[in-house]
Amino acid sequence: MCLGIPSKIVEIDAALKTGRVDHLGTKVAADFALLDEPRIGDWVILHAGFAISRLDDEEAKKTLDLLREVAEQDPSFLS
Description:
The chain is α+β, with helices and mostly antiparallel strands. The chain has one helix at 57-73, and strands at residues 6-13, 18-23, 26-31, 43-47, 50-55.
């Protein structure tokens, strides 16, 4: 199963359209080529290393809250 978990942009190399996102507390590499004007602090959905869409703060929070709720019921859900 593949989940689109909201991740926050924490680093950007504008020349390469790459950087890093905070993905559930872990910093991972990301490619921002599919986004227009990515900015540090933006919430994105990351799939296979590519940021495929942007979320607003409210939508990211709602999604993360729902995922945490499911994980409380089944701790193996996010592993």
